[in-house]
Amino acid sequence: MELYHLRSFLMVANEGRLTRAAQRLFTSQPAVSAHIKALEDELGLPLFRRTPQGMELSQEGELLKKHAEKCLTSVNDFVQAAKHLRHELVGRLNIGLNTEPETLRAGELLAVMAANYPQIEFHLYQRNSWKMAEALQNGELDAGYLFGEVNSPEIKAVPLRTCYLRIVAPLKWRTQLAEADWKTLASYPWIGVPELCPFHRMITAIFDQQRLKLNIVAVGDQEAMLSNLVRAGLGLSVMIEEEALNAQQQGLLWVWERERLPISLSLAYMQHREQDPAIQALLKGLHQIEQIGRL
């Protein structure tokens, strides 16, 4: 049994004549007649009575007409659902976060994306900026936030906004560091970050320019770790401004007020995926969030 058999059956039942049914179906009368005969042969039941006035449904045909209508309605619903899915993104996006979700406005992004693309499932992973490129290249992530510049031609970085680094210190040092300059800061112990980290390059460049040397006593690769070591009184370090000021408001550490060090925040993805519908959807969501954030 084919769908066109059911369509011909219902059209003849509604029109009462083979000629009109054929016209409505944009086919020939013999074709419609053949469809009806094939359906009757397969079912082993007469569906119509041929009369001088046209085609009348038999008792069996009357009973089966409702079932045929339900079948075609289900098929139409199936087709419409498929058409809808062609225009609605479905799947999973793995996104790397290089700092706290609040700083990146990740919650706002997911709210916008969930409203516009309810069939996408988002998986968020913490990754350092300097590890983001590798995660994108090996397919572990679809996109990721990072600080600083991207040197790989395979990776596209879309600038989002400028963030700032702040120098943080244990609370007990705030009085003695209130009027400190870079030379004074250099005399204190520091909690450093890995050499590949863009924070390291920025701080090192400042100290080299002034012919100063960092007194590194420990190295940490997570901002929460740096914050804990600073709070423990181990030394100075650097943190993203939002997180540094939040920690200061909670009375956990002190923020040096003399300098704000600008660093770019970007969203990165593989260049060859630029026209990927999921990436395009993510960029649209990010644009909306960044615009909201600037108001």
From TrEMBL:
CDD domains: PBP2_LTTR_substrate. One of its GO terms (molecular function) is DNA-binding transcription factor activity. It comes from the Bacteria. Keywords: DNA-binding, Transcription, Transcription regulation. Residues 1-58 form the HTH lysR-type domain. Pfam families: HTH_1 (PF00126), LysR_substrate (PF03466). Belongs to the LysR transcriptional regulatory family. This is Transcriptional regulator, LysR family.
